[in-house]
Amino acid sequence: MTLAAFVLTASPSAAQGAPASPTTGAAVTTIVSAVPFAITLAQLEQAITGRGLTIVAKIDHSAAAQRANLALRPTTLVIAGNPAAGTPLMLTDQTMGVELPLRFLVWQGEDGRARVSYDPIKAIAARHGVAGRDELLMRMSTAIEAIVAAATVQNKTP
Fold first, then answer.
1. Is residue 5 a contact partner of residue 30, using CB atoms and an 8 Å limit?
2. Residue 3: pLDDT above 50?
3. For residue 1, what pLDDT is reported?
4. Which residues contact 39 (CB under 8 A, 6 or more apart)?
5. E strands along the chain, which residues?
6. Which CATH number is 131's domain given?
7. Chain-centroid distance, C-alpha 148
8. What local confidence, expressed as pLDDT, does residue 18 receive?
9. Model pTM score
10. Which phi and psi (to 5°) does residue 41 adopt?
């Protein structure tokens, strides 16, 4: 059975609830995955590298919590980017570097379903007052949405 991916916007705690429509602004976007956590994470990594981005770091928050004798559902942050896209934004406002490369959080909700959360690049750029880069931001938004869509879809097996 294929589960539909839902778009949620808000904090991860709010993402536990019913699907909401995407919004613009500073809200984190969360997509509910049609596949389990491990598959979502693997598909995200594949989609990132398939789009020509480099994964520069992976942080397993649940493993870190376990080392601190705390329990946390599966939660992994994947940091990835492409200097050809990010550098022009930092040339417009160098403080963009505090939020680049991009971050994708793969996490498992209380309901057992995996999710991918990310901060939309247009919201990031707006926070830094980046102007005049609409075409680049549109291309980046399209790529980010495609990456997350590929990560959260159930691939049909032959």
1. no
2. no
3. 33
4. 33, 114
5. 7-9, 29-32, 54-60, 75-81, 102-108, 114-118
6. 3.30.310.70
7. 6
8. 36
9. 0.83
10. -60, -45
Question: Residue 157 domain-assigned?
Answer: no
DSSP code for 15? G
Question: Is 19 a member of any domain?
Answer: yes
Least confident of 25-34, 67-76, 78-87, 93-102: 25-34
Distance of CA 144 to the CA centre of its chain: 8
67 burial level (CB within 10 Å; 0-12, 13-18, 19+)? exposed
Q: What are phi and psi of 102, to 5 degrees?
A: -65, 155
Q: How many whole angstroms separate alpha carbon 120 and alpha carbon 35? A: 22
Task: Tell me the torsion sign for CA atoms 26, 120, 30, 53.
Answer: negative
Which one-letter DSSP state was computed for residue 2? Answer: P
Q: How many domains does the chain have?
A: 1
3-class secondary-structure state, position 156: coil
Residue span of the structural domain in which 90 resides:
7-152
Residue 6 phi, psi (nearest 5): -110, 145
- Residue 18: closest CA among 26, 27, 9: 9
